[in-house]
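Students often ask why we bother encoding 3D structure as a string. The short answer is that it lets us treat folding as translation between two languages. Here is a chain of 424 residues written in the first language.
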Amino acid sequence: MLNEKIEESNVHHNSLSTGGHILYIYNDREKYIENATNFIFEGLINNEGVIYVDHKVYIDQIIDKLKDKSVSETEIQNISFVESDLFYRSGFPMEKSLEELASLADPYLEKGKVLRVWGNVRIQEVSQVLSYEQKADKFIRNLQIYTVCAYDGNLISASLVIEMLNSHPYFMTDSFLIPSYLYNHDESDSPSISNQINLEKEADNFMMRSEQLSFAGQFAAGICHEIRNPLTTIKGFFQLLKDDNHNTKYYKVIENELNRIQQITSELLLLAKPHSEQREVHNLVNIVNEVVVLLESQAVMKSILIEKMFMSQDLNIVCDDTKVKQVIINMVKNAIEVMNGGRITIKAAKVSNNVILMITDEGPGIPKEQLHKIGEPFYTTKKDGTGLGLIISFNIIKSHGGTVKIHSEEGKGTTFEIILPTVN
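And here it is in the second language, the structure alphabet:
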């Protein structure tokens, strides 16, 4: 939910990919429980540590919600649940609360785990709340921690919210998450004019990339039109020659090359028009299982283990299953090609109204300076690649109402995260 909302806002400064300090003002109790449950559930899917501080009645409700999502008792026991009355005890002792947070976080951080912390903060004195949040931001800033500081909107003033936005890079309500443009952890920083200019430049780059995608589609359609007609004639006459001549060793080569040209034109056509009229309800679990059966032998030949993890067996989406399968095949094959031994992990789960599929490899990763180019038309890191495979995959997912995100760390591997709308 959090990653999805920040993607929609198209903002990249203060990136949530390495953690974030979020101010959450809630008004709807049901939405609050739903958002808190999704926050924990995402952490479990990503194998992250989770610390959750809240009123006991909310903790009990969230545990019930997690069980509804088929989270096991063992996984629930691995979550650090802390009652807020104990955490913020004795008149909100700021230093004591931060010390307790540090002691709870240490075991996770020592293991190198990414950590999620949720705290439903009790308001005592306003000055102490502001001081606490400022010190908490300093504590969080240099660590890979996702922290939500939740406040009851019925008990907090608008002026206090505005002041707290100075110490929180992100602001969240029951229905959206956006960057806090008031956040400035370094008083020596220049005013927000510079930040705004950078954001506008990034928006321009986004529009330019959209235009490139549109051009690539039109270009592909033109190529298909020009190539397909002569291909039909060539294949027809080739068949006549083949029937009249016994020297077949060259014809096999020619036939393979013609088939290759036909395959390229089909891929270009997918780039131009990834939409399909043959869409039905399919279970993503079945699609993934079919892909693994297809590619497992290739993986075994390179000493690679493909591991599947489904948080639910009921992950229904409306799709053209052959095209979604093509996307998964493309991403898993890419992973196999860049690895020599290791593990490819495919995780799938239902989060809110979406199905999330994550394909993680243990390959060399993608350098930061190249990561933003992945998915651009005609850009490829492969020696013999065309750069069309991923862009076709992105277009297919986009045409199904979904999104694709890439997370990569050089030397450790890459994760492709596919988000698709689910059906009941």
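Translate back mentally: The longest helix spans residues 192-244. Keep this in mind for the problem set.
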